[in-house]
């Protein structure tokens, strides 16, 4: 098959890269805090004076680059609010260590710098788009679902017109094929997935890393189209108090509080709290149904960090949330009787998550170390939708034991064992009419699924010139048997201005039909879930070429992507085969997605940044009775244009984003089939910085565009033709908001 040829071609390139050995400088940036503790400094800036280049340390404070036979190098390491360290190294040196310190003058004056909002990391072998803390402030970003409006890779939309659940699309496929990670712990799985994006407040986050493709084998087999990793505010942050308040014209109200406290030289903690509510009824299209549900959410998290003198780190935390939603017809409220002739929905989510992580250095330089991760989550979803009831309960346990050995500056390997345990207890009751008699269909699609596996990953790094990450894992699943997942990622820099990346890999995921497709409960159709559904199995491979050009105030970047996902096995949820029911079956034929993307980042003048991207998607699937057809409700293309300007010292920041959304194929029963229209959307925000307070005002969907007739047969909600899942555009119209962010610095 074609993808296998590409896979072996990348393997060949991997071995070829060993011939490209060049003299490489490897280094680490350390920071000494006020309390005397010295630790690695992640994401510090390293300036190479002679090479006129800027490097960035990774999350462990490490960096490397090709010195190009320079006799003497001058390197400067710095980070905002810290002293800088300058080092000269001669021709024979290839290792360097920096030590920067927390500035003793921070209380008198604070150094302010402007951080890029969205950028492509130069140091990762996988193309990784980073949304930084600055990027999360470009718009209100009330939660994770609203944090991707400026993203070059991710599209977010509603899964249906009833629940308010949001879903992402990456590489043209639903977010269920993207592995979500919370600081490298798998999250938002199974029953917790439908509303998971709404349960991560944007102001809790420090950054988001979006990696396309299967990426690493360390965190399991579930990544098919990509991995999105969330980095939360850290216990070591010098911010004992952060407050974010938000209010929109729809009366959406939100409050976020974060507090990072360093108790002593070893212990630190961060507490994160969130409250939000949508109290008003909105029916902008006058179909008698709420455009968004009324909701109220409480969310609380506490995270701890312990640093031992020998370098050992212990991290643990707990998170709890509760969320209530009322949806459906405007006349339906909390006190309306369930069996009335009013279509309504109540959705209640409760969840609890706790984790424990420990990392132990086995050598003085931490070249060898061992780590263990244990994560437990409980989630319950109790709901009804018209005459359908769904209750789901999930207990999940994830454990990972990791050993890492950096044999030299070029070679590193990682191996380990991991396992997952998922107990799904689900109850679906579907009321329907048999003649003149009301009857019920009780479905119990719950299961216990266990999987344990071993993995190994080898990393070859030749400074900034070349790197290869090759991994494989073998898992045994109690339902689906043995799962074999090879993966490889390649990076090669022709020079510091032109970088090529390629990848190939295999991923699997078990389906949880109702949570994966929650919107099907908001239809008038019967739901039949067969017992012989396959595990989903797909190969993803692709390539990226990124160039940096001396255009404008700083180097502009131009990036080209191509990715393809081929399914060997897939579970199809088909609404076109039989209009009386939801048809669920295993794929019999081909299913694939091709995505092409081009991104341009530039800063034509100081403090004016421009991001523009265009993505084209070719997605097809084999459906019963139709053969190979275009996937329904998948936009053919999307364009994003973002411009931001900041005045000196960032006292004023102006941000505007425009989107162009291409057509999607509509099922033939929706408006006669065909394609949805092309439409644009506009977002804007202005921020004023006042010492420790940022005040912002903004607007979303300023063109006031919304999908007409989002709910089919809304006038007859208990009929078979009632359907709220044919969503291709925005449900809410023009929205304005205001808020403030207050930061108390230590």
Please explain how this structure is put together.
The chain is mainly beta. Helix content is 3%, strand content 55%. The chain has a 22-stranded antiparallel barrel. A six-stranded mixed sheet has the order 9-10-16-17-14-15. Strands 1, 2, 5 and 8 form a four-stranded mixed sheet that branches. A hairpin with a 2-residue loop joins strand 24 and strand 25 (388-406). The radius of gyration is 26 Å and the shape is globular. 41% of the residues are buried.
- Please state the average pLDDT score: 87
Which structural class best describes the helix and strand composition?
mainly beta
Which blocks of ≥5 consecutive residues have pLDDT under 50? 7-22, 104-113
What characterizes the major β-sheet? 22 strands, antiparallel, barrel
Binned, the helix content reads: under 10%
| Annotation, overall tally of beta strands | 44
Specify the overall morphology: globular
Q: Total number of helical segments?
A: 3
First and last CA, distance: 59 Å
Beta-strand fraction estimate: over 45%
Question: How large, in whole angstroms, is the Cα Rg?
Answer: 26 Å
Task: Name the features.
single chain, 746 residues, mainly beta, 22-stranded antiparallel beta barrel, 6-stranded mixed β-sheet, 3 helices, 44 strands, 3% helix, globular
């Amino acid at each position: 098959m074609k993808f296998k040829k590409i896979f072996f071609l990348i393997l060949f390139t991997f071995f070829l890269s060993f011939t490209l050995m060049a003299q490489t400088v490897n280094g680490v940036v350390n920071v000494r805090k006020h309390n005397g503790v010295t630790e690695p400094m992640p994401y510090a800036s390293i300036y190479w004076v002679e090479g006129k280049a800027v490097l960035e340390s990774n999350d462990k404070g490490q960096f490397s680059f090709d010195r190009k036979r320079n006799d003497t190098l001058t390197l400067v390491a710095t980070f905002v609010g810290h002293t800088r360290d300058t080092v000269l190294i001669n021709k024979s040196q290839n290792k360097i260590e920096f030590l920067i310190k927390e500035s003793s003058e921070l209380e008198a004056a604070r150094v302010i710098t402007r951080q890029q909002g969205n950028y492509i990391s130069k140091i990762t072998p996988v193309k990784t788009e980073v949304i930084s803390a600055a990027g999360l402030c470009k718009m209100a970003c009330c939660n994770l679902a609203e944090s991707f409006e400026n993203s070059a890779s991710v599209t977010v939309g509603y899964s249906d017109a009833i629940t308010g659940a949001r879903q992402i699309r990456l590489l043209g496929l639903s977010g269920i094929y993207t592995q979500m990670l919370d600081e490298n712990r798998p999250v938002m799985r199974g029953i917790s997935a439908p509303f998971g994006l709404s349960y991560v407040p944007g102001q809790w986050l420090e950054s988001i890393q979006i990696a396309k493709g299967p990426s690493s084998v360390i965190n399991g087999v579930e990544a098919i189209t990509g991995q999105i990793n969330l980095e939360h505010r850290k216990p070591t942050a010098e911010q004992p108090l952060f407050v974010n308040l938000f209010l929109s014209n729809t009366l959406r109200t939100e409050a976020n509080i974060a507090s990072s406290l360093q108790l002593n030289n070893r212990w630190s903690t961060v507490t994160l709290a969130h409250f939000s509510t949508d109290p008003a009824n909105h029916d902008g299209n006058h179909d008698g149904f709420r455009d968004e549900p009324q909701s109220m959410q409480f969310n609380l998290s506490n995270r701890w960090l312990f640093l031992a003198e020998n370098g050992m780190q212990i991290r643990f935390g707990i998170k709890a949330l509760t969320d209530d939603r009322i949806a459906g017809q405007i006349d339906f409220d909390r006190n309306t009787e369930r069996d009335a002739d009013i279509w309504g929905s109540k959705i209640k989510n409760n969840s609890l998550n706790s984790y424990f992580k420990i990392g132990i250095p086995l050598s003085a330089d931490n070249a060898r170390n061992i780590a263990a991760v244990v994560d437990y989550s409980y989630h319950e979803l109790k709901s009804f939708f018209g005459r359908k009831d769904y209750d789901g309960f999930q207990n999940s346990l994830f454990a990972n034991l990791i050993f890492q050995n950096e044999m030299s500056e070029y070679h590193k390997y990682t191996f380990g064992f991991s396992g997952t345990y998922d107990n799904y207890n689900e109850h679906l009751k579907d009321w329907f009419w048999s003649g003149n008699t009301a009857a019920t269909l009780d479905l119990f699609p719950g299961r216990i699924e266990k999987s344990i596996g071993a993995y190994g990953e080898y990393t070859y790094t030749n400074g900034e010139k070349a790197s290869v990450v090759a991994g494989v894992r073998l898992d045994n699943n109690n339902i689906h048997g043995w799962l074999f997942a090879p993966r490889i990622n390649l990076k090669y820099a022709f020079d510091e201005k032109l970088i090529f990346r390629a990848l190939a890999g295999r991923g699997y995921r078990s389906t949880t039909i109702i949570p994966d497709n929650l919107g099907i409960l908001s239809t008038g159709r019967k739901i039949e879930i067969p017992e012989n559904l396959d595990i989903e199995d797909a190969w993803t491979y692709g390539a990226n070429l990124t160039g940096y050009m001396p255009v404008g105030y700083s180097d502009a970047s131009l990036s080209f992507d191509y990715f393809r996902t081929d399914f060997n096995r897939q579970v199809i949820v088909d609404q076109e085969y039989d209009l009386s029911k939801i048809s669920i079956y295993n794929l019999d034929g081909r299913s694939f997605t091709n995505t092409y993307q081009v991104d341009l980042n530039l800063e034509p003048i100081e403090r004016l940044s421009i991001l523009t991207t265009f993505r084209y998607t070719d997605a097809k699937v084999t459906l019963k009775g139709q053969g190979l057809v275009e996937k329904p409700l998948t936009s053919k293309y999307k364009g994003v244009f973002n411009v931001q300007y900041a005045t000196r010292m960032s006292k004023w920041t102006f941000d505007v984003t425009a989107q162009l959304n291409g057509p999607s194929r509509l099922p033939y029963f929706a408006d006669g089939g065909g394609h949805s229209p092309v439409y644009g959307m506009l977002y804007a925000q202005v921020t004023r910085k006042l010492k420790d307070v940022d005040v912002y005002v903004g607007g979303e969907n300023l063109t006031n565009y919304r999908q007409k007739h989002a709910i089919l047969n809304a006038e007859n909600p208990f009929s078979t033709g009632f359907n709220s899942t044919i969503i291709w555009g925005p449900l809410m119209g023009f929205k304005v908001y205001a808020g403030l962010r207050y930061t108390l610095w230590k």
